[in-house]
Design a protein that fits this description.
Elements lengths: L15 E3 L11 E3 L2 E3 L6 E2 L2 E2 L3 H17 L10 H6 L4 H6 L2 E2 L4 H5 L3 E2 L4 E6 L5 H14 L5 E6 L4 H13 L3 H6 L4 H17 L3 E5 L4 H15 L1 E7 L13 H19 L2 E7 L19 H7 L2 E12 L2 E11 L5 E8 L4 E4 L14
Parallel strand pairs: 8-12, 8-13, 9-10, 9-11, 11-12
Antiparallel strand pairs: 1-2, 2-3, 4-5, 6-7, 13-14, 14-15, 15-16
Helix pairs in contact: 1-9, 6-8, 9-10, 10-11
Length: 364
């Protein structure tokens, strides 16, 4: 009978000898076919005893990924002259971006998100973080130079995410879909239209029920490697878990943001992590700032871009005026993007007004 998961695994007795050649007794050092080894007492990862099969598999996958990628020490340097010569065509530099076509936001981000970049989207509860993250996946899917994306949801099921995507693609109110107000024939027509649009564009993959940062990263690496995913969105940081001993919560958050940044850099893809703003940012409906990000020191340090959502009092029927504040951009300017939030489909739409902020200066 095989040993239970997490229990010691003992090789066949006849094949095990002490280093001196005598039969093994107890837990002393031994060799297997002449190769020195230690008896397996448990499986540890970051000081934690692993007994669940999923945890052990995730830990093993992380180790395999580290071996496959060669580790940080084996990453080769690049000569400046060779790097500059490779930049012959400016269109080649744009090609690897994840396209962002949401009106002024795309303008502020110079057309999209850079490869190897970590973007934080921050907002107060119920202000449209998930909608913006999903919307950016759809923009990447629809664009002519688009890409596949992975949306990792801790807060919602795949079916709930699917309803949102159906509403966004079809324009049918998500409330009408959920209440069954739309008749079956019309629903099938809209569903098939949405499915055809999804089939003609790049795929959006949904991962739900996974909160462990290591597991999310392992799933993302598999999608990047096998499905050519170039954008990963995680919803959201406050619900993620990270094993290990941390003296303070902000240190745990810092370890998580660093892990997502390493995923972006090592894979050469774009990663978006949604984050909740502190309660103080809600007072008086004031504009949020970088300091309103929870445990902002670590998050702000790791992020290449920070986008903050500010819901305005400007409402026109189903549309809510919203400002997307690009509060940090490592490779470009900061500024504001004015958009509409359509409540019935929980989606963002371009708002045609002149750009506001530093990014508008000097551009023509």
């Amino acid at each position: 009978m095989p040993p239970a998961c997490g229990q010691p695994v003992q090789p066949a007795k006849s094949a095990i000898t002490k280093s001196a050649g005598e039969p093994v007794s107890g837990a002393s050092r031994h060799s297997f076919d002449g190769v020195p080894c230690e008896p397996v007492e448990r499986v540890d990862y970051d000081g934690r005893r692993l007994t669940e099969p999923d945890d052990i598999i995730t830990a093993m996958e992380s180790g395999i990924d580290a071996i496959r990628e060669g580790g940080e020490g084996d990453r080769d340097s690049q000569c400046e002259a060779d790097l500059l010569r490779s930049m012959e065509n400016p269109h080649e530099l744009r090609r690897d971006k994840v396209p962002v076509t949401l009106g002024q936001l795309g303008f502020l981000l110079d057309g999209g998100l850079d490869p190897s970049s970590l973007t934080i989207i921050g907002a107060r509860p119920s202000c449209g973080k998930t909608s913006l993250g999903l919307g950016l996946c759809l923009h990447a899917s629809r664009a002519s130079d688009g890409c596949a994306s992975l949306f990792a949801s801790i807060e919602m099921s795949a079916q709930q995410i699917g309803l949102r995507l159906l509403s966004m693609r079809s324009g049918v109110s998500i409330g009408n879909i959920r209440r069954g107000v739309i008749d079956e024939d019309a629903f099938r027509v809209e569903r098939n239209k949405a499915a055809l649009a999804a089939q003609n564009g790049q795929p959006v993959y949904i991962l739900d029920g996974c909160s462990d940062v290591r597991a999310i990263i392992a799933h993302a690496k598999r999608h990047i490697r096998h499905r050519d995913v170039r954008l990963t969105v995680v919803d959201y940081l406050g619900l993620c878990s990270m094993p290990g001993d941390f003296d303070r919560h902000d240190l745990r958050v810092g370890a998580m943001s660093k892990a997502f940044k390493e995923l972006a850099v090592q894979s050469g893809t774009s990663v978006i992590v949604l984050s909740q703003l502190s309660r103080a940012s809600a007072s008086g409906n004031r504009r949020p700032g970088l300091s309103d990000l929870r445990d902002s020191g670590n998050i702000e340090q790791d992020a290449d871009n920070v986008i903050l959502i500010h819901r305005e009092n400007d409402r026109h029927d189903d549309l809510f005026g919203t400002t997307l504040i690009v509060a940090k951009q490592r490779q470009g300017d900061t500024g504001d993007a004015q958009v509409w939030y359509r409540r019935s489909t929980m989606s963002y739409e371009a708002r045609h007004v002149e750009p506001i902020g530093a990014a508008a200066e000097g551009r023509s």
